[in-house]
Amino acid sequence: MDSERLREKKNVPANPFIYNAPVRGADFYNREAMINKLWKETVTGKTLGNVWITGERQVGKTSLLRYIQSTYEDNNEKVRLYGGRDDYFSVAFVYLNVQDNKSREDFFNNLQQSLKSFFDFKLESREKDAKKNFLNSLDYLHFKKKYYIVFLLDEFDAFIETLAAGDRESASSLLAELNTLTEGSASASKDGVKRFSCIFAANHTPHDLLKEDIIRRIGSGLITQSIKLDWFSHSQVEELAQNYLKDNPVQLTDEEIEFCFKMTQGYPYFVQVLFSIIYEHKAGGAVSKVHFKKIKKEYGEIFAETVKSWGGTYMPKPTLEKLKGLFGKIGKTLGDKALTLLFKGIEEYLKTQIKG
Q1: Which domains, and CATH codes, for the chain?
Q2: Which of 33, 39, 322, 329 is spaced 20 to 30 A from 187 at the CA atom?
Q3: What are the pLDDT digits (tens) for 57-72?
Q4: pTM here?
Q5: Phi, psi of 351 (to 5 degrees)
Q6: Tens digit of pLDDT for each residue in 238-250?
């Protein structure tokens, strides 16, 4: 009897460990403290500031942004913004992936469109300049509807790199322009009132962009609070398994959880991958030593294909180093010569291409 039929016979639920799409709703886990910090930094804190979130690929940046938007989508709580204003404002978190934006005009057009789509309002774009039309929509929401906006800008560094590829000065000047807007400068906004903040999600830190000569230090001033989205600790990996498998007849042993942490070091994407593989094996029967060998091989193959698809040397330095460390734990079993060569190429890249 194959594993799928055996699962049906045992009435085993579908695999709860999803790794090929953003984690949504009740499945989102282990980032509660981060959400509270982001709320404080962008809404209730003294600065009403911007936040720049970095982390390796598939570490959970998009899931975090999407979860924030969905969590506060129906939030009717009104807050008084810092700075002595007496009015109360509703807070709206508006998500936008800017990876495919090609120009400053694309960026401001899409910011405006994200507002119109989120709030379902109609406001004619009367100005030729995209930024002016965006600011008109922002004025309408802030002064007429009493909303404070926090934009959740995903893949922001990819957009900046696209701009810089055509003209590095345009990337630097956009960051400076955006900083002026988010600081509520009297020269950039009505009455000098701060009307929005941004949470940027990126693979590279602003410092990385400077080191790799993508933007210039002068003219690219974007004031942000930098936060790194970390990998899971051993206890978080254990808690995640317990949370996902609550009331599930399939349970993971301490040995299996320890095995998962050893092979992933808490990298969220690969934790989900390995737990998913283990779950599929256990749903079809007991996991023996033979199964462990199959699980390790299956995980290694997915790891290899993932690293290749992520682009190798185009990843930030910390990601390259960490993935190489993970490969060291599974490489002997996998025996992937092509991946070994890839990591040798990565080592040369780290030695010759990254400055500082």
Answers
A1: 31-228 (3.40.50.300), 232-352 (no CATH)
A2: 39
A3: 888 899 899 988 888 8
A4: 0.84
A5: -75, -35
A6: 999 998 999 899 9
